[in-house]
Amino acid sequence: MIAAQLTARFPNGMMSLAVLLHVEQQTGSYGAAGLVLAATSVGQAVAGPLTSRWMGVWGMRRVLTLTLSICVVAVLGLALLPLSLPGYMALGMVAGLSTPPVQAAVRTIYPKLVNSSQLTPLFSLDASLQEIIWILAPVLITLVSTQVGTVQGLLLVALILVAGGAWFILSPEVGRVRIPRSRNPLGTVVLKPPVLLATVIGFLLIGACAAVEVGVVATFEHGSLAAGLVLAVFSVGSLAGGLAFGHIPIGPWAMARRLVIVTVGLALTLFSLNAFWLGGTLIVAGIGIAPALAVLFAITSASVKFSETAEAFGWAGTGQLIGAAAGSAVAGFLVDVSDPRGAYLAATLFAAVGLVVSIVFVRAFPDLRGRDASPRPDTEPLAVTPS
Q: What pLDDT is attached to residue 68?
């Protein structure tokens, strides 16, 4: 299941760069490419809670198959059709809106695959292994798009979408797990304090990561091997942190402790732009990333009913997407008005605000030490008092 969902989500790490490089080549404008990426991101943000909730109405396989089919057609259109900027933006938004909700689906399935004591380590392992996507996917799509062609790059995205999506959809677990229809209106679940905290802190944490990416690119310029290596060690630090600390029980202060590591590591980047210094400090910061994401996944799962799990993870994913856009925008502005240190300052501030939020609202974090992190069943036994 982990291998299937990682393969199905692999195009998520390729799409942005593939679209950016293709639209820039076709239009000659990075500004135009940025608008298409923005339309794609808006589509993904809007779709997250909606398509996740639909899985409880129509079933996971139907929703995943429908969204996958539309997304593949949209990507093929971007690759093969002679489009104007509005056309690229329209297809980009369609691709974003139809992004298959694999992440929400698999994190809804996990509690049905393992016992309660294994669930938190499984969330940590998932958060760690997803770093493989962000290490390998950008390198692969950049290599194909620059050395072979941008059309071929988008065709590769479509091919992996089909192969990975089919593998995941045909997995027996996807067919066996049935999400009950939620009885609450759309959006109600995000008002639960743990889910709201997971969405807000996910926004800030991924915003910090996006700002780091802008800073590294601005430090070493586009196409530099050093930039790719520094970003890779950032992800390696996250992978190592998740594997090393995934077994630690999650208490109310777990998020704050992990965000201290992230904030301190990012703050140290401000002292030097040397590649070795940045690599070392980002490894430190990365050690807290996957464990922090594991906390987000666990508190979300433990605080909702099973019928609400997919929608809750959809909202969390939307928060992270908006955070990535905000982090990139703020970091880019600060780089323009100062130098690359502005991006690392933005990353540090995003992480520091997340740390403050996790401290101020620590009472809203559930204590999962010795407790089942699985979602609550939708039907529970009623205590009957004999007359």
A: 96
Q: Average pLDDT, stretch 265-285?
A: 94
Determine the Cα–Cα distance for residues 143 and 245; give it in Å rounded to an integer.
34
Q: Rounded to whole angstroms, how far apart are CA atoms 322 and 189?
A: 18
> Residue 378 — pLDDT band, cuts 50, 70, 90?
low
Task: Please return the burial class of 384, using the count of CB atoms within 10 Å of its CB with bins 0-12, 13-18 and 19+.
Answer: exposed
Among residues 90, 102, 92, the alpha carbon closest in space to that of 63 is found at 102
> Crossing angle for the helix pair 116-129 and 131-147, nearest 10 degrees?
30
Residue range 1-177 in CATH 1.20.1250.20: yes
232-244 per-position pLDDT tens digit: 888 888 888 888 8
Q: Provide the 8-state DSSP code for 271.
A: G
Q: What is the 8-class DSSP label of residue 303?
A: T
Q: What percent of the chain has pLDDT over 90?
A: 39
Residue 267 has pLDDT above 90, yes or no: yes
- Only one residue has tokens 């996944």, namely 297
Same CATH topology for 1-177 and 185-376: the answer is yes
Assigned token pair, 238: 């996250």
Count of beta carbons in the 10 Å neighbourhood of residue 57: 11
Q: How far, in Å, CA of 28 to CA of 7, rounded? A: 32
Residue 13 burial class via C-beta count within 10 angstroms: exposed 0-12, middle 13-18, buried 19 and up = buried
Q: What does pTM read for this prediction?
A: 0.81
- Please name the CATH architecture into which domain 185-376 falls: Up-down Bundle (1.20)
- Tens digits of residue pLDDT in 97-116: 999 999 888 988 988 888 77
Other beta carbons within 10 angstroms of residue 49's beta carbon come to: 24
- Find the mean pLDDT for residues 183-202: 88
User: What's the mean pLDDT in 305-323?
Assistant: 86
**In angstroms, rounded to a whole number, what is the distance separating the alpha carbons of residues 283 and 221?**
20
Cα atoms in the Cβ-side hemisphere of radius 13 Å centred on 38: 11
Among candidate residues 230, 303, 299, the one with its CA nearest the CA of residue 269: 230
Long-range (24+ apart) CB contacts under 8 A made by 147-152 are: 150/18, 150/21, 150/22, 150/25, 150/26, 151/22, 151/79, 151/80
| Alpha carbon distance 189, 313 (integer Å) | 10
Domain ranges of the chain: 1-177, 185-376
